[in-house]
Amino acid sequence: MKAYQDLTREELLSLKTQLSDAYEEAKGKGLKLDMSRGKPGISQLDISMPMLDVINSTSDMRTALGNDTRNYGDLDGIGECRRLMAGMMSVNKDNVLICGNSSLNIMYDTVSRSMMKGVNGSTPWCKLDKVKFLCPVPGYDRHFKITEYFGIEMINIPLYNDGPDMDMVEQYVNNDASVKGIWCVPKYSNPTGISYSDEVVKRFASLKPAAEDFRIYWDNAYCIHHLYEDRQDEILNILEECEKSGNPNMVYIFASTSKVTFSGSGVSAIASSVENINYIQSQMTVQTIGHDKINQLRHARYFKDVNGLKAHMQKHAALMRPKFEAVLQVLDRELTGLGIGTWTNPNGGYFISFDAMEGCAKAIVAKCKEAGMVLTGAGATFPYGKDPKDSNIRIAPSFPTPEEMAAATDLFVLCVKLVSIEKLLEDNYGRI
Amino acid sequence: MKAYQDLTREELLSLKTQLSDAYEEAKGKGLKLDMSRGKPGISQLDISMPMLDVINSTSDMRTALGNDTRNYGDLDGIGECRRLMAGMMSVNKDNVLICGNSSLNIMYDTVSRSMMKGVNGSTPWCKLDKVKFLCPVPGYDRHFKITEYFGIEMINIPLYNDGPDMDMVEQYVNNDASVKGIWCVPKYSNPTGISYSDEVVKRFASLKPAAEDFRIYWDNAYCIHHLYEDRQDEILNILEECEKSGNPNMVYIFASTSKVTFSGSGVSAIASSVENINYIQSQMTVQTIGHDKINQLRHARYFKDVNGLKAHMQKHAALMRPKFEAVLQVLDRELTGLGIGTWTNPNGGYFISFDAMEGCAKAIVAKCKEAGMVLTGAGATFPYGKDPKDSNIRIAPSFPTPEEMAAATDLFVLCVKLVSIEKLLEDNYGRI
Questions:
Q1: Is there a contact between A150 and B116 if contact means CB atoms under 8 Å apart?
Q2: What is the C-alpha to C-alpha distance for residues B64 and B378, in angstroms, rounded to an integer?
Q3: Of A112, B20, B101, B241, which sees the most CB atoms within 10 A?
Q4: B60 vs A: CB within 8 A
């Protein structure tokens, strides 16, 4: 394959005509595909249906300690569910607080409380002139929405294959007291799918923050979401590393079963030092009398322990793999060598990240949409929705079937090619 | 019965000796009773067990509109659950937003958002020098905790048998722009059990707030929680009245099924004008992708409509009545005519409110505790935990059995008598 950059104007124009015809034909098919969000597929949701039988009208509704899950109490979550989530998050039970149905909601609440009341007694952030968060990019749009909503200034940090640019992270965190946090998806990162290397985790744990209320927001959303049996990423335990480095309170870890059981009907958890957990509880008691303990019991009894979770996730992987492979096959076949895009081939998580030629992402997403295929908005993976290179596109293969994903990727590569050609023509010959 | 105030010193002293003996005997029994919170009794929780069979592994998990409740979506709640809660709250479906498991959490979030972002675009409260809430007293301790947590100044408003002192409410709301809200439990009020008269509701709806971002926080927690078939309170529809008065956005209504199905595993809702609901949703989308829709479906399918809820609540009433009556019988028999206490006899809700002689509540609660009976802390029903008269005690009869409630009230009246005698002796003869 010849790279598009090496084609003559005539070759580009002829290719454009060809591809335009194919695109018009594709449009005519009236496709309707939504690859915008990391939504589990229907067959994935079906896997968890037996969990709905675990609690029924004949069940003993008491916890191991004898507390009635149907009544008020257990603000920190029932013991068996704390143990389950602790296993998933590789921490001790006492480091875990079970919350509602959404880890995003815990992150929002954590930032919200810091804005109004500070962190473990520090000055409330809303009283400060400036509060900044570091944002490894590309990253998770909903993280950025939270910080944007609260008026927190976001600073882009390049995300490499082994984690964020740690020189830059250290430079900011260790010198700028207005830097209060960093958003991390350390394992099977959203959207690139990379995992942080041991060295990166150790450098995180060894930060010497200028701000006492600096925290690492460690969103371990995909901690057990492997795609392959033989290709699995593992990351160092950040809580342990922080302890070792004398920074026991520096990290908040978030996780949930939204992509294990049911999206919206799972359980979520925050893990941190006991001191942090106690502080959060002392605030949380104003907000709620307690979370849904019946659903906690349902999860704890169904999975029993972390091994139950892992076995369950193998079933998810079996369904997810063909979808990822369908995308990767088309990308490999159609785009290799053309010089108009690069993409990731992750070992887990929910996304494939595609980098188009600079200045092409928005146009590609728009072109896909015109033909009936909705992608995550270009730019969404960057703070303020602004990708400085207009290059990154997040592909979420989980919801459609493998066949639909293949068809969708056919359309996607068509749009990538067309937009790239138009860009090259414009750049090289637009001023003739 | 002779009022204690009319007894001589010798009569009081002799009575004290008698009662002290009885108290020591009671202490010896090693009672362990918790009447501190409005916790449903076990037999009440049992009523809702069949709901846990409604959703199982063979269920069609789609809403009437075909949306999969197991996946992301429906931030505002599934249609059938919005309809159910709308019926419960006497509003239209479009006025209702379904949230998580706790209406307290919605109230907290509503105040929290107002602090950080204002109300429908007004100046964020955290940017203002002073924000005040009116607090009808006695009232619900957890309301007061929320406003205290956010540093909002609370102003006591006397609560009469037909509602708050509306002259005072109008005086504050219509003239002081720093007054941003008022906490109301309009039906079977916590703790007094009174309901607002039509005139009071109309006066609420006709307020002319000095602050554009003033809202009525209408916690209709006990809207369907009648105790009797033939003695039921009904209140005017505040949302309709506000519309009629040209104040369509002035009220937020809160409710949940925490005391209908399971405490902590119910569904909660906020009802308001469509404009308010849309504004809240536009903010809520930063906080969460959606709430637990499977639990919404469970509730909607089990109850079908508001009539299902009402029939269900009759079963609760049958269990609650004997508990309330056990308390009232003892109070009537033991305290009538003694001049040392008054109490309410509500038609619904969860509480009986007891007013001791001034300066006696704390001592009574402490004396009960010493004998193994935990009551809501004296003062808790007032902002900052400070009952200016040290008089009000909230009795929560729901959790113990009727027999336990009778025994508990025996102990309670003993403590009331003893403390009252000590107070009278101290007041009248303490300086001799």
A1: yes
A2: 49
A3: B101
A4: no
Instruction: For residue A143, give the 3-state DSSP assignment.
Output: helix
Amino acid identity, residue A61? Answer: M
Q: Are strands B96-98 and B392-395 parallel, antiparallel or unpaired?
A: unpaired
Q: In what order do the strands lie in the sheet with A341-343?
A: A341-343, A352-356, A392-395
User: Residue B82: what residue type?
Assistant: R
Each residue's pLDDT tens digit, B77-100: 999 999 999 999 999 999 999 999
Taking the whole predicted model, whether its pTM rises above 0.95 is answered as yes
* β A132-137/B215-219 pair status: unpaired
Q: Summarize the confidence of residues A357-365 as an average pLDDT.
A: 98
Structure tokens at B172: 């504050």
Nearest to A194 by CA among A221, A162, A242, A224: A162
Q: Are A288 and B102 inside 8 Å of each other by CB? A: yes
By C-alpha distance, which of A290, A423, A283 is closest to A364? Answer: A423
pLDDT band at A248 (very low <50, low <70, confident <90, very high): very high
Spatial CB neighbours of B78, under 8 Å, sequence gap ≥ 6: B63, B65, B67, B69, B98, B293, B296, B297, B300
* Alpha-carbon gap, residue B355 to B334, rounded angstroms: 15
Asked if pLDDT for residue A233 goes beyond 80, the answer is yes
Please report residues of B whose CB lies closer than 8 A to that of A294.
52, 262, 264-265
Gap between the Cα atoms of B401 and B305, Å rounded: 30
Q: What's the pLDDT tens digit per position in A163-188?
A: 999 999 999 999 999 999 999 999 99
Of the candidates B345, B346, B330, the one whose C-alpha atom is nearest the C-alpha of residue B415 is B330
d(CA A415, CA A326): 17
d(CA A64, CA A82): 12
Report, in angstroms and rounded to the nearest whole number, the Rg of chain A calculated over CA atoms: 23
State the amino acid at position B344 in one-letter form.
T
Is B71 in contact with A264 (Cβ distance < 8 A)? yes
Phi, psi for residue B172 in degrees, rounded to 5: -70, -55
CA atoms within 13 A on the CB side of A252: 28
User: Per-residue pLDDT tens for A131-151?
Assistant: 999 999 999 999 999 999 999
Which is nearest to A93 in space by CA: A298, A310, A306, A266?
A306
Distance from CA of A98 to the nearest CA of B (A): 13
All residue ranges of chain B with pLDDT < 50 are none
Residue with tokens 């993976």: A381
Task: Tell me the pLDDT of chain A averaged across its residues.
Answer: 96
- Coil vs helix vs strand at B82: helix
Interface with chain B: mutation pick from A35, A52, A257, A299, highest number of B CBs within 10 Å: A52
Residue A137 has φ and ψ, to the nearest 5°, of -130, 145
For chain A, give the number of residues. 432
Which of B353, B253, B269 has its CA nearest to residue B309? Answer: B269
